[in-house]
Amino acid sequence: MIQETQTDARLESTDRLGDQDNDVMKGHTMKKATSSAGRRFLSAAALASVTALALGACSGSGNSASAPITEETGPVEITLATPAFTGGGAGNPYLALIDAFKAKNPNITVKLVESPQDQHGQTMRTQLQAGNAPDIFYVTAGRGNNQSFTALADAGYLQDLTDQKWATDAIPASAKNLYYDDGKVFAVPADLAPLTELENTGVLKELGLKQATTLNEVIDQCKTARAAGKSLFALAGTSGPNTGLHAMQLAASIVYAKDPDWDAKREKKETSFANSDWKKVLEQILKFKDAGCYQDGAAGAGFDQLFPAVAQGKVAAVFAPAGAVAALRGQVKDGSFDVNVIPGETAGDTRLIASPGNALAVNAAGKHKGSSMKFLAFLAEPANQDALAKSNGNVSIAAAVAGKVPSQFPTLEPFFSEPEKKIVTQPNYLWPNSGVYDSLGTGIQGLLTGQATPDQVLKTMDEQYDRGA
User: Fold this and answer.
1) What is the pLDDT of residues 377-433, one digit of tens each?
2) Distance CA 298, CA 85 (A)
3) pTM above 0.90, yes or no
4) What is the phi/psi pair of residue 269, to 5°?
């Protein structure tokens, strides 16, 4: 059984903050420094290897010894928890996966439950601590946000999958640094979600605008949009995940285009947030604010206001994973929507963030672990991952590793055609704890309200980073 006093204390240490080139064979894990090759999911090694495609509660050893996993033959119902997807209800892409699984496993019923996008991580933590968590739930790679699997694994809440070949085979070689924690595997990647601008192309056409190629051009476009009574961007100032995502997209082109090894250097204390180009990132957000790039009231806006704003043509773009454009196209039949990438200081600096960060994990205290792991094994089959990615509007991991340009995202072709140069890993996946990203997200709200300065935000991020895992 899980010793809640110790495990809860470990989670509370991260909850107080709110919401490498991988070298596993040598014992390196995601806690180690990351080289420039490790920053890129779609590395040359990954492209070459395309054809080669439970934790004890407090001890860190496998937990299967105390809770044997058995095959269940009678009728069983298990629960799968995911964030609510744009459109919700029947729009959740996991429903198609559930139906396909049910067809092969008629004795197992999978019940889908959803929680708000920006509350899912905290909801899972609360339920795990209370002992009423679902059997399977959505997590993200690495350590750097409140949905990351590693803090939950450290606390003994996740089933160790290391001895399951289907689980280890599902992790591309270039993504092992995101999924191996001290040599163990606790989550299975589902698909790859590029982080983009979701654009209402009808609004851009109405404003006479084409895709900007530099940040200075973006500023000019903001002024054009304002003159027409609109704003270029909508930002959810009260949602740390949304403001943080926006900052990371800027950092991809401002920080990592110039220094792909930045995270490795930060881990070695050879640089810091406060004394690097991360300051330019936050200063750029202030430039956007002063130029009227964000909608009125952005500091107090919630995540639920973003998609209606872009769908109704009040703004030209929002910052979100690329897959969400499929939901917009489905909801607004007479609209025109696409995805693009916010540019860098120069056109050559522009980078796309794309990582196999979406994943599922199994509750170590679940009553139906045999059936739960069977569902994950089903997800891990390449054909099912491909189908999920198509339903999700995201990119199939197999297709990404093979270097195929996603047909649904032709505007991203320049990035997927040169992944080693133009795609970087989502930065916060490589940070040691969720406090760093939380400080970034809440700090940006402070920038929008005038209650914080870039120096203050970056100082707090450094302090949180130095707390370690």
Assistant:
1) 999 998 999 899 888 888 888 878 777 767 788 899 889 888 889 999 999 999 999
2) 22
3) no
4) 65, 30
No. of helices (H) and no. of strands (E), the chain:
22, 13
Question: What domains are there in the chain, each with its CATH number?
Answer: 4-192+356-401 (3.40.190.10), 195-353+432-465 (3.40.190.10)
Q: Which two tokens stand for residue 82?
A: 């995911």
Residue 295 corresponds to which amino acid? Q
Distances (CA, A) of 274 to 239, 252, 349: 23, 17, 21
d(CA 297, CA 283): 19
Helix, strand, coil in percent for the chain, rounding step 5: 50, 15, 40
Over residues 225-283, the pLDDT tens digits come to: 999 999 999 999 999 989 999 999 999 999 999 999 999 999 999 999 999 999 999 99
The tokens 């889908």 sit on which residue? 112
Query: SS3 for 425?
Result: coil
Tokens representing 145?
A: 């946000």
CA 65 to chain centre: 32
Phi, psi of 188 (to 5 degrees): -115, 125
Structure-token pair, residue 25: 């064979």
User: Can you give 176-234 as a three-state secondary structure string?
Assistant: HHHHEECCEECCEEEEECCEEEEEEHHHHHHHCCCCCCCHHHHHHHHHHHHHCCCEEEE
Q: Is 319 helix (H, G, I), strand (E, B) or coil?
A: strand
**Burial bucket for residue 211 (CB in 10 Å: 0-12, 13-18, 19+):** middle
Q: Which tokens hold the place of 360?
A: 């599922």
Q: What is the rounded CA–CA span in Å between residue 320 and residue 323?
A: 8
